[in-house]
Amino acid sequence: MSAADLIQPQAADAEAPRQRGLLSLLLIANSTMLAVYMGVGSVLLPTQIESVDPVHKVTILGIVGGVSAIFATAFNPIAGALSDRSGKRNPWILGGAFLSCAGLIFLGTVRTALLLGIGWCLVQATMNSYQAAVTALVPDRVPLARRGTASALVGLALPVGGTLGVLIASRTSGSPSTGYLVLGVMLSAAAASLSFFFRDVPRERIVPKVSRQAKVAAFLSALSHHDFRWAFIGRALLVLGYFSVVGYQLYILDDHITLPKGMHPTDAMAILTPVSMLAMAVSTIVGGLLSDRWNRRKVFVGVSAALAGLVTVIPVISPTWPGMLAFSILNGLAFGCFMAVDTALVTLVLPKAEDAARDMGVLNIANAGPQIVAPFVASAVVTVAGGYGPLFLTGGALALLGALAILPIRSVR
């Protein structure tokens, strides 16, 4: 059942304040989720791996990142489908957050590459169960006419959460256990607040009596729809290009960029991330609101993906601190607009409203799946090509292909 079915015309005004409250809590829930992803993935985990084996840090980070992303890819759509079948979101939100908190605390206690890998796999699995349920709340409860605005507000989670996560991680990199604990508690508090103030909207339980083969086919059936498939491909290519570079940013700052005297890579991260995320916040708001006002999605998504690809040449031409600042600002503008408007676009090409969480979970394979490939691609490019310049160019080429993949979408302007 879609949000449009749940809200009768005469009740629209009465529901408006409640929707605004929902969007605020969704912003907090998504922000803490991305604080975990960015804080751990960009700072705490690479720092721990470097302390364990500084010589093989690139390879180890690639393996840990790739294997853990397999868990993310598997658990997101599975949890989404199970959430659809149960007719409830809150148990998955709470369970995923609390189990993730336990996994983060475990990560703060380990000191070997193997245990770091196991711990991060567990966190990825539980975080993606949480993410699948939270993501489904937009198509569940927000009317079609407000999807762009809602997606823009929720999209602010990346700049807000990313900045917060990296700042916390950078300040606690000398004591990772503290950073993990703070991030885990924040996530749990956000999940508890969302579940307490917004109880589950009654939804029809879907328990189909079909064969296992039919279940698998139904699970991926959204990809048989032309527009959904191209939206999936475009998202996957851009995310692959983005995380191929961002996942190694700490090492890029350490080994490729000439930093000002006395500045350490973690200090640089604490500056670059807020700068990039501020740019991302601006483009998220502007892109989402303008896409609603003009009722246009494809042009915003395509242009922002193309910009994300083009700006990767800056750190190649100028591997300096000013060059990295310029790249971070422009890349933030491009990625923020893309994610805000692309999320709105995707909600408009979902095949069936009653399968929203399942299909959004399938789409999230385009978020998590490329993160399986990205660490291996990045590690191979850096090792074989002998530097981070080719890595930037590879990420840029993938983003440009993502821009081209938006063109075949027909049902959305």
Automatic annotation (TrEMBL):
GO CC, alphabetical: plasma membrane
Subcellular location: Cell membrane
Any one GO MF annotation of this record: transmembrane transporter activity
Membrane spanning residue stretches: 21-40, 60-79, 91-108, 114-138, 150-168, 180-198, 232-251, 271-290, 299-318, 324-350, 362-385, 391-409
Membrane recorded as keyword: yes
Keyword Iron-sulfur: no
SUPFAM superfamilies per UniProt: MFS general substrate transporter
Database matches in Pfam families: MFS_1
Database matches in InterPro entries: MFS (IPR011701), MFS_dom (IPR020846), MFS_trans_sf (IPR036259)
Domain spans labelled Major facilitator superfamily (MFS) profile: 23-413
Name under which the protein is recorded: MFS transporter
